[in-house]
Design brief:
The chain has a ten-stranded mixed beta sheet with strand order 3-2-1-4-5-10-9-8-6-7. The mean pLDDT is 90. The protein is of the alpha+beta class. Helix 2 links the parallel strand 4 and strand 5. The chain starts with a strand and ends with a helix. 29% of the residues lie in helices and 34% in strands. The chain has six helices and ten strands.
């Protein structure tokens, strides 16, 4: 199974980078990226455009698992993965309201009563269903609330941890390496070309 990771990171004032990377060993290799002039999270339309381009690169017989952080825990992204036939481990915000077993419950409330999973739950007031695994390990401030395509268990939830390689990649681009946050470039396409040069390096 090929592991793809999607995350967003600040490049400089007013510029954010959305990136899809490939897990290689415990590291990440950039595959595709989009720089957007914004101070907030990048919406699903840009995510979809980037993922559509990545999907075109992949042979049809390759199994894919997409891992994404809480910026991307939306019903639209879950539905996109299901349409593509991709596996997914997407962290969700704890205040999202899920419809499950004829009632509503947030991820945080489910964790408080020590539920370990919600199967075939819908969220965001849609009819898009997903399985959700919940893990709150001792010593961690917040639980992991992970949307997934399979039956939840502890080991499937921990698959989400494979996304940490992209954090190391962003650190290499920033404070531990190339110092991209010090760029004076003010055009998205020029910053994207700079990222391409760093990716090759």
């Amino acid at each position: 199974t090929v592991i793809l990771m999607m995350d967003q990171s600040k490049i400089s004032d007013n510029f954010e980078c959305l990136m899809v990377s490939l897990r290689v060993a415990e590291r990440a290799v950039p595959v595709a990226w989009k720089v957007v002039q914004t101070k907030g999270s990048i919406g699903f339309e840009v995510q979809k455009s980037l993922l559509d381009e990545v999907a075109k690169m992949i042979p049809k017989d390759v199994d894919i698992l997409l891992s994404g952080d809480r910026f991307y825990g939306t019903s639209s992204l879950v539905n996109w993965c299901k349409t593509q036939g991709w596996q997914y481990r997407i962290r969700l915000k704890g205040n999202l309201i899920f419809q499950h077993a004829s009632g509503d419950i947030t991820g945080n409330d489910a964790a408080k009563i020590k539920l370990e999973s919600l199967e075939k739950a819908t969220f965001n007031g849609t009819d898009i269903s997903t399985n959700i695994g919940i893990l709150h390990e001792r010593g961690h401030k917040e639980p992991w609330i992970i949307a997934m395509d399979c039956k939840p268990n502890k080991y499937k939830i921990l698959d989400y941890g494979m996304r940490w390689g992209i954090e190391c990649l962003f650190s290499d681009f920033k404070s531990r390496g190339f110092g991209i946050t010090k760029t004076h470039l003010k055009h998205e396409d020029r910053i994207e070309r700079l990222i391409m040069i760093m990716a090759l390096a």
